[in-house]
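Please, structure for the following, as tokens.
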Amino acid sequence: MGVHRITSPAAKAYMTRERILGDGLTLLGAAAEKSGLSPQTLEAAGDLAAQLVPHAPGYGGKALQIVAAQFWKQAKVKEKAAEMLSFEELEKKVEALRRMVG
């Protein structure tokens, strides 16, 4: 009892999406609290927030658009159109930003 197995492809995709969104949001929160980040790091945080939007349901996706705009404003770059990335590519982006934020 208490064991939960994820076996179907749909369940695996849902679990992957939730894990990546959780990791990305946590990282964006950490970046927002940190002072003295470089403009490149702030821009990368905005890019990640925008790239998470298509995978975030409901109001979470709408809030991520605002988060992306705020990071870009701090980095002093123009707002961009985000590209749709696969979960694997998003994981790589999250890890790259994690190294940049420290």
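The chain is about 70% helix and 0% strand. The mean pLDDT is 92.
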